[in-house]
Amino acid sequence: MKILLSVLSLCLIISCHKETKTKLQNKSSEGIGNLKKDSAKIQNDSIKTVDDIKKEYSILNTLLTSKKLDSTSFNYNCDEREGEIVLYYQNKKLKIVKDFYSEHSHFSSSTKYFVNNDHVFFIFKEDTSWNFDGGTPEKPITKDDITEKRIYLQNGNAIQCLEKEYSIRSVGNNPDPDKITNKETKCDIGELMKNYQSILKNKDKKGEIKCL
Predict the structure, then answer these.
(1) Theoretical Cys-Cys bridge with 198: which of 20, 94, 151, 212, CB 3.0 to 4.6 Å?
(2) What are phi and psi of 8, to 5 degrees?
């Protein structure tokens, strides 16, 4: 009798253990399924607000700085403007386009177009001009005057434009650009988008071309 009770108790324990394990596996599967659904939702939802743009920009910029994107590039030389175009891809989908050029030796410009589903949703443009700012012929002091522009787009139209200006000297204390407040401005993105379309037309070129 005692042996029979022991066997029944053992069977009951094994049965409960299997049931608990099955429930845990089901919950785990549901959790993974929900994560996949949420991920798909994020990918499929369109970028509608400035906050959405900031989140998507942060994701792509992290991939860029950590060198997780594939890239192709070509150079151009147009009169006194010498530049390089770099196109960044994730799973063969265009994500970022960078246009950097220098002009007249004292000016350079960098424009990054951030892309989602073949549409530009954010543009970051940084223009830098430099000049001498004192010092001696042996040890001249230089000053970079920098203008940053941040343009948030929806359906091809600018919905917010921010700008900040500051100077960086080769000696002395300099401001922290991240602590400088952006000013909201009006902006015309016509030329920037025209340049972007020209880049796309030449994106498969190799080596150096003349003008975009």
Answers:
(1) 212
(2) -60, -40
